[in-house]
Amino acid sequence: MRNCLFILFNILLTLNVSAQEITGQELLNRAIAFHNPSGNWNTAKIDLIIDMETPGNSARRSQMTIDNKKGSFYLKMLNSGSLYEYWVDKNDSTELLYNFMAPDSLQVDSLNLTKERTLRWRDYYTYLYGLPMKLKDPGTQVDPTVQRTQFMSQEVLALKVTYDAAVGEDIWYFYFNPETYAMVGYRFYHDEAANDGEYIVLEGMEIQNGLRIPKNRTWYTNADNRLLGTDYLIEMKVNR
After folding, report:
1. pTM, two decimal places
2. Which residues are 158's β-sheet partners?
3. What is the C-alpha R_g of the chain?
């Protein structure tokens, strides 16, 4: 019995040491080397078609272009019977176009059709589909301590990330395969003590022109594991 306990102790010690042998920045660098091995992210033009499915609703298709070389973003989506097109240039100038039924003033308010909303769409999609490369952006605070833990019943390396107050207030944890450094999921909290926020499970990988982008993302609440929806990457085209 004593020998078994000694062996178990050594195994746990080895796991802990292996996680601590790598710093947060080193883990991030290795994850970026896996997802962006050719260093193309900052100059790539990426065309995406995404279907978002939420419980009880039909799929909503979005088509977008993230042009990192030009610093521009384009999004087209069908929402509430109208087709909306959002565009942002490198200077944060925005344009909103709509087809089919042009919304009246009440619809403009209810759908939040504003410049701020357009910028939020840009920030939302470029962040999620630019991970983990976006964790190099200014204002990002990477915790130096790497944790070895479990995520969706698999062993992972966890990277804690916070942001300068001017950038954001949420607390994020990103989970990576300890052998390949592929990102397998992440979670965020507004208030970690309250266990609010959500976690996202990644499935599959789309590989093109030196970029590895997670294919499908399924969202759940931290508090009760309630399914919120899934983003399915239907098509991706990467131009360098």
Report:
1. 0.85
2. 147, 175
3. 20
